[in-house]
Design a protein that fits this description.
9-stranded mixed sheet, single chain, about 20% strand, about 700 residues, alpha/beta, 6-stranded mixed sheet
Length: about 700
């Protein structure tokens, strides 16, 4: 096929709605779901700007079942009539012209001094990207109606006398699937977005109606940031706030011998389980406010800035959130840089001046503070430099400098006036710092211990590998002791079955700390054989994960222990280790338990195995009812694995066609965790109560 010539006639310009419909990601940051969500926020933000100016304290949003959205406010109403200065109708400028709006002179005029919509893009771009849009405006005693289809107006402006004195704007539209690859905005997005907006727009009520679930959600914070940080820290219980009680995202307002499954949660719940005590912050929530003026560069215009910062310290929660002109700054930018610089400087100075550091101890970093910091920053400026139209970060140098200077001074005053809180947060920051340093050391040690190749024969004592390199075939038997190693080794299929002996009872990994766990040769050897690393869950954000499921060397990991008290205990300790260090292996159905027979039943020359008392009774009853002549029946308790003949091991425990495996599947991770904690953790009182209530069932 001949290539088209590239010449002067090759250059074209997109016009009208095509500027957005063909390139939505330029305006919305994406042509997928995130871009579609941002288009919705553009309309909501216009109503927020009105409310911030003092016009209307309620905004209603409807999530329609057909994918459409309605946003209604009680502001002054969008000016849509004829504009003599521009010699055009305002509806044409606002809905059909990019870079048209009433917020460009916000630094000189009082209207929209602190506004979300500064670029004059959102309203028009959302209209252009919609399948249809209907607009109803009430202002100046008239009701105005507009209808658009795929970016084009249909029918012009309809103007009639208003039947109500209540002014405001109502916009209903459906994002176009020809523009966005995904328009199915989930309810969670609306709940999260509106809750955030309620936080930073104190006293504004957001009402969300969801037609799909037929539920209504209210989002409201009378005192804004202060209510929110009290809620996050636990200082004020959620139910005392006027928030979304129903918000789902916010609590405020053979055939197959391996088909059997073991659910780690199939046990009785402890009715006496104590309720968790309400979380409390380490320090009292504190709020600071400031207003100032400045410029980003000497030759740039001066602009106004105001901000409020609420924070507290906690040993259970950590969160940083930044907002500017009501827009959530996912990446922060200037305010985040200010917070990091000021907090490190102020707290480091406090630690040094009060001799909290050990001799030659390294200086704290922000990660040590962030681990226990709950902080919300809401700023407003009349000039804003966003990184792009999606408004996820701001870059104003003056905002960064002003916040940094203010925070440093205010934190110094705060430490003096709140000595007890200052000492508490300082101690917690040092705990975080030392935990991080220990964790980093542990991580380095772990990488050295766990790194290795597939051939582990010469690296792990007594481990017996298999021949196959195909992970989809490979099975690892974790067996109890050297004697079981011998019988399993002789009874296995060496092509795909490997053996790893565990010498005695391993550590209780729920009670031991990580240093003790990784100093255990048994555990580190087993982790090395698994090959996938470990998953370490630390208190806050210290990341010690060296886990990679793709590096797992086995399709099945089979725990094989004696059917006696010691065997059950060893099995439980191995399961506990897996649960704490590599829980994904349970979730991915990689962990199995090999059932060992309880009884060997000899009937004449035939040998049968019973795995329970009931099976033993059934076998004997079946023989007695069907036997034509009496045959000698010999029943003996099955020996330990190490005493079994290789042929018996193959038949009962290792042959895929005849063995019985129990797949370990925690269908409810919370209940699993509760039971592990009760039976093997530090909850001694809970364990005693559980035994009192349910022990008789296991005796």
């Amino acid at each position: 096929m001949k290539k088209k010539e590239y010449n002067n006639e090759s250059i074209t310009a997109l016009k009208g709605a095509e500027r957005v419909r063909k390139r939505p990601s330029v305006i919305f940051g994406s042509d997928g779901l995130t871009g579609c969500q941002h288009s919705v926020f553009e309309i909501i933000s216009n109503s927020i700007d009105e409310a911030r100016e003092g016009y209307g304290s309620k905004i209603e949003i409807i999530r329609h079942a057909n994918g459409a959205v309605t946003v209604k406010d009680y502001g002054r109403g969008i000016p849509v009539d004829y504009n003599t200065a521009e010699k055009a109708y305002n509806w044409e400028l606002l809905f059909c012209e990019l870079y048209a709006g009433g917020k460009f002179d916000n630094n000189e005029e009082e209207n929209y001094s602190y506004s979300l919509g500064l670029n004059g893009l959102g309203l028009c771009a959302t209209q252009y990207s919609s399948e249809y849009m209907d607009v109803v405006v009430v202002r100046d005693g008239f009701e105005y109606n507009l209808h658009f289809e795929k970016g084009e107006n249909v029918g012009g402006l309809l103007k009639n006398p208003a039947t109500t004195q209540q002014t405001g704007s109502t916009t209903t539209w459906r994002p176009d699937k020809e523009v966005f690859t995904d328009t199915a905005i989930p309810l969670e997005y609306y709940c999260d977005t509106l809750n955030r907006q309620a936080v930073i727009n104190a006293g504004v009520l957001f009402v969300l109606t969801d037609e799909e679930t037929e539920k209504t959600f209210d989002f409201y914070y009378k005192n804004g940031l202060l209510d929110y940080i009290n809620q996050l820290s636990g200082e004020t219980p959620n139910e005392t706030l006027d928030n979304n009680a129903e918000n789902p995202e916010n609590p405020e307002n053979p055939e197959n011998p391996e088909k059997n499954e073991l659910d780690l949660n199939e046990t009785n719940e402890n009715p006496k389980k104590a309720k968790k005590s309400a979380k409390k912050p380490l320090t009292t929530p504190h709020i600071m406010r400031h207003e100032t003026k400045g410029r980003d560069r000497a030759d740039k215009p001066e602009y106004k800035l105001k901000f409020e910062i609420a924070f507290c310290f906690s040993n259970t929660e950590n969160r940083l959130e930044y907002y500017h002109n009501s827009s959530f700054l996912e990446y922060g930018g200037a305010p985040d840089k200010a917070v990091r610089s000021a907090f490190v400087s102020a707290i480091d100075s406090f630690l040094r001046s009060n001799s909290h550091y050990k001799k030659d101890e390294k200086r704290i970093i922000f990660a040590d503070i962030e681990d226990s910091l709950i902080l919300i920053v809401s700023s407003f400026s009349t000039v804003t430099s966003y990184e792009n139209q999606t408004k996820k970060a701001i870059t104003n140098k003056f905002i960064q400098d002003a916040m940094t200077e203010f925070l440093k001074k205010q934190l110094e005053v705060y430490f003096i006036e709140n000595k007890s809180d200052a000492n508490t947060l300082a101690a917690q920051v040092l705990v975080n710092k030392r935990s991080r340093e220990t964790a980093e050391k542990t991580r380095t040690t772990l990488r050295k211990k766990l790194t290795g190749t597939l051939d582990l024969n010469n690296r792990v004592e007594k481990f017996v590998n298999c021949r196959s390199k195909d992970v989809a075939m490979r099975e690892l038997y974790i067996v109890e002791g050297d004697s079981a190693l011998g019988s399993c080794k002789l009874g296995r299929n060496a092509d795909f079955q490997a053996i790893m002996p565990v010498r005695g009872k391993i550590l209780n990994c729920l009670k031991a700390d990580y240093d003790k766990i990784f100093n255990s040769d048994i555990i580190t050897d087993l982790l090395r054989v698994l090959g996938c690393g470990v998953e370490i869950k630390t208190k806050h954000k210290v990341d010690l994960n060296v886990f990679d499921l793709t590096q797992l060397k086995w399709n099945r990991i089979i725990i094989c222990t004696d059917a006696d008290y010691d065997g059950f205990q060893i099995r439980t300790l191995i399961l506990t280790m897996i649960y704490r260090l590599v829980p994904t292996l349970i979730n991915e159905s990689k962990i199995f338990i090999a059932e060992s027979p309880l009884y060997e039943i000899n009937i004449g020359k035939k040998v049968l195995f019973a795995y329970s008392e009931k099976e033993k009774s059934d076998i004997i009853a079946k023989h007695e009812s069907s036997a034509k002549s009496p045959q000698k029946v010999k029943i003996q308790r099955s020996k330990g694995l190490g005493e079994n003949e290789p042929e018996m091991m193959w038949q009962t425990t290792m042959n895929p066609a005849t063995r019985r495996l129990i797949r370990v599947m925690p269908t409810d991770i919370d209940k699993t965790q509760q039971m592990f904690e009760i039976l093997l953790g530090d909850n001694i009182k809970g364990r005693k109560e559980f035994i009192e209530d349910f022990g008789y069932k296991y005796v």
